[in-house]
Amino acid sequence: MTRKLLLLILLxxxxxxxxxxxxxxxxxAAPGSESWNYEEGVPQDASHPITNVTHPTLTAYFPDPSLGxxxxxxxxxxxxxxxxxxxxxxxxxxxxLNSIGVAAFILKYRVMRTGDSDASDSAKMAERxxxxxPLAIADGQQAVRLxxxxxxxxxxxxxxIGILGFSAGGYVAAAVALHHDADxxxxxxxxxxxxxxxxxxxxxxxxxxxxxxxxxxKVVTPLDHSIxxxxxxxxxxxxxxxxxxxRGQTRIRHAKDHPACRxxxxxxxxxxxxxxxxxxxxxxxxxxx
Length: 289
Prior knowledge:
By secondary structure, the chain is α/β, with parallel strands linked by helices. It contains 7 helices and 10 strands.
């Protein structure tokens, strides 16, 4: 009862709060990891990731009311499903989105356990990764549901909810775009140098999809991931896609002085201001730098 009451209080946060608000993702223990009782790794500072996530949350950043577009973006940081790099693949982007009138919600999704006696066993870690990926995707789907169900009080439009992710977080964003029900379907998705699910067959109601990937990425190679995802969309004749593949700057970090940010900032800004998100996006269509 106490936990449910706390959830209701947190869901009733003031819409345009000056400080970020942490919102539980699930009403109780997250399904599939109810027995996870180890301690979450809280980063010492912005240069360290979050580890051992057992209680997924959304951290909400709301824009000034005078700038609000009604658009919301769920941000999924990367970290190989081992950790979450929330600073440069979360907080910095959230504040920038606020500056263009977009509400931002950083998703702290579940990742595999690390730092224990089994962490050096590659076979066990591979099994943990296999186990946690569906749970991380479920967290992404639940995040879309949560935003849509609370859209009026959070000042966002039910049909302007997107999900954006980096690397492993891009995997989550892509998977949610490909696998969803009516309530968990995002209106657009932006996987950034993403890993991708094995099955990239696009459903008939696939949302607008925008990708950014460096052609020299050796960690998550575009041919095996982003390009494969684009081809999956092409096979279903789905026009709601756009991609930017560019040279160099393998890992985009959302910082003002990073030259690769233009590949992310401009298209995302255009998406936020689009009158309708249900159509193809010709102004984002070119594939190339």
